[in-house]
Specification:
single chain; about 55 residues; mainly alpha; elongated
Length: about 55
């Protein structure tokens, strides 16, 4: 039996892993990988851009 709280937490977790970059709003597979590695939802190109130009 699943509690309502566990069901809500599961929905929040799956929404967070939607592979949409916070910067450019494009869907990319690398977003979830970077979220696990760095804690930020950025695609490869935005991560590189932020690394080179950290403004």
């Amino acid at each position: 039996m699943i509690d309502e709280n566990e069901d809500k937490n599961l929905k929040v977790d799956t929404e967070e892993l939607n592979n949409i970059c916070d910067e450019c709003k494009q869907e990319d597979e690398s977003v979830s990988q970077n979220l696990i590695l760095t804690g930020f939802k950025l695609c490869k190109s935005c991560r590189l851009s932020k690394t080179i130009f950290p403004l």
